[in-house]
Specification:
This protein is an alpha+beta fold. The protein has one domain (about 15-135). The protein is about 25% helix and about 20% strand. It is globular. Mean pLDDT is about 75; it is low at about 50-60.
């Protein structure tokens, strides 16, 4: 029997939930107390560009000080300290990545910020492209 996992942010229990988005299906762990989510290696990348913010009901990004606080991996034996990594689409989002299992922890609000930044980038690029067409 698997031992229960605890949240690296608030030490609340992590609860498994199914993620099903456009061809991607896997189980992630969510903290019902603080809203953070742990993705196994590769799972976040599978949905990063297509996920809808309502999936995880995320509403805000934590403060920079809170994001810098060291976290321990909730799934690895010995709980190694996770490394801080800026997200490729939004530098305001600091993800925690385990150097051992390569799982990713996102605090409540971070996934929505990534999603919104991707949408805004798409819209800006579309407007620029349309302006180029008009000048031609």
């Amino acid at each position: 029997m698997e031992t229960s996992k605890t949240c690296p942010r608030c030490q609340g229990p992590l609860v498994p939930f199914e993620v099903e988005e456009v061809g991607a299906r896997f189980t992630a762990l969510r903290c019902e107390a603080c809203g953070g989510t742990f993705f196994q290696a590769g799972d976040l990348e599978r949905i990063d560009d297509i996920i809808e913010p309502h999936l995880l009901e995320i509403r805000h990004i934590p403060s920079p000080a809170e994001q810098r606080r060291p976290l321990l991996c909730p799934v690895c034996p010995g709980a190694p300290q996770m490394e801080k990594v800026e997200h490729r689409r939004d530098a305001k989002v600091v993800m925690d990545v385990c150097p051992s299992c390569h799982g990713t922890w996102l605090d409540r609000g971070e996934l929505e910020a990534i999603h919104r930044e991707g949408l805004l980038t798409f819209l800006v690029n579309t407007v620029r492209w349309m302006a180029t067409l008009r000048r031609s």
